[in-house]
Design brief:
alpha/beta; two-stranded antiparallel ribbon; Rossmann fold; three-stranded parallel beta sheet
């Protein structure tokens, strides 16, 4: 990829960490499991407002509780509107749940990227 409005053009590396499809997969499984009676309470770890409609369907139309756990300071307005309960994940709890900086498995040793 090249930077624009720079002469001469400079090549740069772009790290794109955006996931594609995970919200659709989560929504699909949430709805399927709700319709087939696979849970009594659903809990999602998210702040993605794209999940508001599936949460609304499960909570309002199927009358099943859906909780949202969120590591951010504020909850999505859309999710807040439909979730049965909301809970913030404290930063200390999140930090305590991380893998160590390096991990070794049968394929070798790998390290967490700086800043993760």
């Amino acid at each position: 990829m090249y930077l624009t409005n720079v002469a001469p053009g400079q090549k740069v590396w772009v790290d794109k960490t955006e996931e594609k499809g995970s919200d659709v997969n989560l929504a699909s499984h949430l709805l399927r499991d709700a319709y087939t009676g696979k849970f009594e309470v659903a809990v999602l770890i998210t702040n993605d407002s794209d999940l508001a409609e599936p949460v609304r369907i499960v909570a309002q139309e199927l009358d099943l509780p859906v909780g949202i756990l969120n590591p951010h300071q504020f909850h999505s307005r859309e999710l807040r509107q439909y979730a049965t309960f909301l809970k913030r994940i404290r930063q200390g709890d999140l930090a305590a749940s991380q893998f160590p900086r390096t991990v070794t498995d049968r394929k070798g040793t790998f390290a967490k990227r700086t800043g993760w």
